[in-house]
Amino acid sequence: MKILLQTLLFGDAITSLKLRASLGWVGNDQYSINDVPQRFLYLQEYTNNGGYTFGTGDNFFTGIQQGDIANKEVTWEVARKQNIGFESDFFKGILGINFDYFYEYRNNILTNIDAVKPEYVGAAFKVANVGETENKGFEIELKHNLKINKNFNYYINANFTYNRNKILKKADPLGLLPYQKEEGYPIGTPLMWKNTGYFGSYEEIQNSPTQLGNNNGIPGDIEIIPGDLKFLDFNNDGVINQADAYRQGYGTVPEMQYGITVGGKWKSFDFSVLFQGSTHSLFMKQWEIMWAFSNNDNVFTKHNYYWAPEIANDAQFTRFYGKSWINNERYYSTYEAGSGTYIRLKNVEIGYTFPAAITQKALMSNVRIYFSSNNTFMWAKEKYLDPDNRDTRGGKMPPTRAYNIGLNVNF
Amino acid sequence: MNDVMKNIKYLILFMILGLTACDDFLDRAPGVNLDEDKVFTNFLNAQRFQADIYSGLTSRFNALGSYQPVPLSSASDESESNAGYHGTKGFNMGNYNGLDANIYFYYSAIRKANLFLKNSERIPFPDAKTKDQMLGEVYFLRAFYFNEILKRFGGMPIMTPTEMFVPGDDLMRPRDTYRDCFAFIMGDLKNAIDLMPVTLTTNEYGRATKGAAMALKARVLLYAASPLFSQKTGIWGMGGTTDDWMDKDGKTWWLKAAEAAKAVIDLKDDEGNPVYALYKTTAANKADDYEKMFFKRRENGNKEIIFYKHEAPVGFTSNEINVWMPSGDFAGAGAVQPTNNFVKLFEMANGRYIDEAGSNYDASKPYQNRDPRFYKIIIYQGSSWQGATLDMSTTTTQFPAGTFLTGYFVRKYLPEEIKKNTTTTSYHNWIFFRLAEMYLNYAEAMNEVEGPSQQVRDAVNMVRARSGVIDIPVALTGTKKTMRERIQRERGIELCFEEQRWWDARRWSTGEEGELAAKWFGGPMNRVVITKSGSSVSYNEEAYFTRIYQPNNNLYQIPLGEMYKNPLFVQNPGY
C-alpha cells in the first residue's frame, strides 16, 4: 500500500511525502537447541544410547533409549506483523523525516515445557506450541542536509529506535509467584533480588529484615556483618528469602538504540563524526569481575576499593573476605547487574583534498590526506566491561581503538 | 476464460494428489532408523533397551556435588567434607531443597521399565526362560528405583505402563499413599522373585537375581516396620504395625521383615548349596576379609555380595578413589574425612563402648585396643598407609596446612595398592545388598519380635566373628531395648559409608525432638586436634561445626520447583 500525496496546504514546502502501512503473517517452524536445529518434533525417535556393563569381562553393552517424547500435535508458530509510517522530505532535502511504528504479535511459539512438567513423568518432552509474545515500537530518522554556499555544506543524520516486547504466555509453573513468572515481563528480564547497598553498621543489620547469608536464608547461614550486601524485603515479611527475588530491570537486548552522524565540507576540508549507543539493557556480571580471587586468584582494580568503614560511600565491592568465599555477594541480584547504557564516539574523520590545479600537474586526478579514528571514546555507566561485548566476567577483548593517517591518490 | 478455469482445476487436482502422496520415507529423520516397532519386535534391540534400564544404578561413592563429589556419609555423622563446595554442605546446614532428590533420575528409569513392560508381549523372546529372566529383572529394577523415591519422600505418584505421558496430556497427579507405594513395590518384587534365577552365568554377572529381589524385599519390609513409617498414615506411613490389609496374615511387619531376611540367608542354589556366605579366608587377621570384601567379586570367591554396581576396575585418577584418598603426600582430594563423633562409636576390642564400665579406654591412646574393624575402616594418627606412618598432627610435614579437618581419613573402600603415579586398578564394589546386612536386618527385626533371643544374638555375632570381633556382651544386652541399641551401633560400624546410617537413623525416629537422627546428624561435629611434643602425642577433641538437623528432616523436602508445578502435591511436614 503506497500513497503519494501532495497537499495544497503546505504548497512547495513538501518535496515528497509517502505514507505506508503493512500487515502480514509469517510462519516459523525452526527450533534449535544449542544451535542444533530440532527437526521432526512429531516423530518418536529411539537412539543407540546408554547401556550397562555385564559379565566377568566387564564389557559395556550399549543400550537403546527412547528419545525426547514426540509432540504429535506440533505446528508452526505464527507472527502477525503490522507497520505504519511515513517518509517525507521538506524543502528539497533540507529536512527529511522518516517514521515507522511497528507491532508484532507471535503465538504458538515453540516452547520448552519442561518447567511445567512434573519430574515423575520421567522423560523430556519435545517443544510445544505454547508461547505468545508481542513486540512494539517505533523508528524515527531525521535527515538534514544544507548547502550554505559553494564552499560549505553539511549534513546531520540522526536515528532512534525504541522497542518493547512482552511475554504474554509461557510455560511458567502454576505455583510460581506472579512477580517471578516470565509472563507479563519483557523477554529475558532477570529474576533477582534488589541490592540496596552495603550494611554500614551492626545497628543497621539489627534493624533490617533478616538477610540472606550463604545458605538461601535457611538455618545454617553465616552471620551478616557490616560490609555485606543488603537486600530489599520485596514482600515485606521481615525475612529475605526466595520470595523476595522479583523480575526487574531489562533484558540483554537494548530497548533503545540511537545514532547520529554529522558531516560536511568546507573548501577543501571534509569531516564526519559518528556517535552511537543504546540503553535499557542489562547484563549480569559474575566471576572475576565481581568476586575477588575467583577462578585462580583473579583481581581487578575495583577489588582494591573493598568496603571498609572509611570508604563506605565509595566502595566498589563488599567487605574483604580473603580467598575462600564466605559472604552473601553471590546471589543473583542487582549488585551483579551491569548497565548496558552507553554512547560511543564510533568514528571521527577529517580530510583535506589538495586543489585540483596542483594535483593535475602531477598527473594525479585527486589527492586526499586524512586522519581518522575508530572507537575513539565511550561514555558508559559500566566501568569495567564493554556493554557492546556481552562480556559477563572480564575476559573478552574489548573493541580496539584505532587511529589512522592516510593518503588517497587517484590517477 | 474457459481454458483458464480448466487449468486451475487441473492445478487443484494436482495439488491434492501431491498432498496425499506423502511417503513415509519423508518422515524419517536422517540417520535415525529406530522406532518403537523396530525396538520391540526385534529381540536384539529389545535386549539393548532392557540393558539400559540398568543404567539407573549408580555407584554412590561420589553421590553429591559436581567437583570432587562426595558420598552421602558426609551428610550423616560418619564423615565430613572438608571444603565448602562439596555436595553435602547444604544438608549439613539443614537445606533439603533438591539435594539428593533424584526424582527425575529414578522416574526416568521407571519409565523405561514401564515402556518395556508395556511392549513385552510383542517382543520375540527366544525362549520362555529368557523372557522370565528379563521381565523379572525389569520388575526388580522398577521396585528398586521406586523404593529410592519412597524412602526419601514418602508416598509419591505410582507410575505404571498406562501412565506414559506425552505432551498435551494432563500431567498432574496427587501423591499416592505410602501403603499403595509399598504394596506396588511388593507386587513387583513378588513377580521378580518368581521369574528370576538364583544364579547367573559368568557373562551375566551384574544382572539382578532372585536373591537381589529377596534382599530388597527384606529391606523394604524392614523400613516399613520401622517407627518412622509404621506409625504414620496416608502419604507418610503404614498406619499400623501389623499386616491386616495386604496379605492379611496378621503377622507384624517386623516378623515379616525378619522372615524375608532369613529367606535370603537360607537361599539355596539348584544343587542345594547356600548361595551367599560371609566372605572369609584363612587370613590370620580376620578383619582383612572385611577390608578385601569390597575389592572382590563372586568370581574371586566373594559370595557375600548380593547385588552391586557392576563396573570395570578403577584406578587412582577415578573420582571413586581420588576423592576419598588422603591428600598431601598421597595426592588424593582427601574430601571424605571421618568425624570424631563416628570414631568414638567403635567399641573396644573387649566389646565395650569406650564410655562403658570396664572398657579400659585410654583417652591418651585412643586408637589402642579397638574393634578390629577400626583399623580397616579408619586412617588415623600413627596408622600405616601406603608405606608411610601417618602424621596428622599440627606439625605434620605430610600434609599442607588446611588439607585435613577432622584428623582422619577413610581406609574402607581404598585399595592400598592404588597409589599416586601408578596405573594399578582394582575392583571397587558399590554394594547395594550384602549378606551381612541381611543378618543384621534379621537380628534387628527379630529382636523387635521376641527380644534378645539366641537367634538374634547368633545373627549379630555371625557378622562380628567374620572380622574377628568378640561376641556382643550378654550382660549388656539383656533387654529388647539394650539389644536394639547394640544392633543399631553394630549397623553403624559394619555398614558404615555404605549409605545405610543416613536412612537407618531416620527410620528409627518418628519426627519428635531429641530422637536418633536429630541427635546424630545435628549439633556439634567434632574433630581431633593432634599435637606432638617430642615423642609424646596428645589428642584433644574439639567441635568445628554445628550441623542443623530438624526433626522433620526425616523425610526429604519435595523440591520447591515440583511444588510450584503441581497444585495436587502436598509438601512433607515442616517444610
Question: Describe it for me?
Answer:
The complex is a heterodimer of chains A (411) and B (575). Chain A is extended, with a radius of gyration of 29 Å. The two termini of chain A are 47 Å apart. Chain A has helices spanning 202-206, 294-297, 356-361; strands at residues 2-4, 14-28, 32-33, 36-37, 46-54, 59-66, 77-90, 95-111, 128-147, 152-169, 191-192, 195-198, 229-231, 246-247, 256-266, 269-279, 282-284, 306-307, 317-319, 337-339, 342-353, 366-380, 402-410. Chain A has 411 residues and is mainly beta. The model of chain A has no long low-confidence stretch (mean pLDDT 90). Chain B is mostly helical and 575 residues long. Helix content of chain B is 37%, strand content 9%. Chain B has 20 helices and twelve strands. Chain B is globular. Chains A and B meet through β5 and β6 of A and α2, α3, α5 and α20 of B.
Short descriptors:
heterodimer, A: 411 residues, mainly beta, 11-stranded antiparallel β-sheet, two-stranded antiparallel ribbon, 23 strands, 4% helix, 46% strand, B: 575 residues, mainly alpha, 12 strands, 37% helix
The average pLDDT value of chain A, as a whole number, equals 90
Number of strands of chain B: 12
Q: What fraction, in percent, of the residue positions of chain A are helical?
A: under 10%
Q: What structural class do helix, strand and pairing data of chain B support?
A: mainly alpha
Can you describe this structure in just a few lines?
The complex is a heterodimer of chains A (411) and B (575). Helix content of chain A is 4%, strand content 46%. Chain A is mainly beta.
List the helices and strands and how they pair.
The complex is a heterodimer of chains A (411) and B (575).
Chain A (H helix, E strand, L loop, with lengths): L1 E3 L9 E15 L3 E2 L2 E2 L8 E9 L4 E8 L10 E14 L4 E17 L16 E20 L4 E18 L21 E2 L2 E4 L3 H5 L22 E3 L14 E2 L8 E11 L2 E11 L2 E3 L9 H4 L8 E2 L9 E3 L17 E3 L2 E12 L2 H6 L4 E15 L21 E9 L1
Parallel strand pairs in A: 18-19
Antiparallel strand pairs in A: 1-2, 2-7, 3-4, 5-6, 7-8, 8-9, 9-10, 10-15, 11-14, 12-13, 15-16, 16-21, 17-20, 21-22, 22-23
Chain B lengths: L1 H19 L15 H5 L2 H11 L25 E2 L8 H4 L10 H17 L8 H26 L24 H18 L14 H16 L1 H4 L22 H13 L21 H6 L12 E5 L4 E2 L3 H4 L14 E2 L1 H4 L30 H4 E2 L4 E2 L2 E2 L19 E2 L14 E2 L3 E5 H16 L3 H13 L13 H15 L6 H7 L8 H6 L1 E11 L2 E12 L12 H6 L10
Antiparallel strand pairs in B: 1-4, 2-10, 3-9, 5-8, 6-7, 11-12
Helix pairs in contact in B: 3-5, 5-6, 6-7, 6-8, 7-8, 8-10, 10-15, 15-16, 15-17
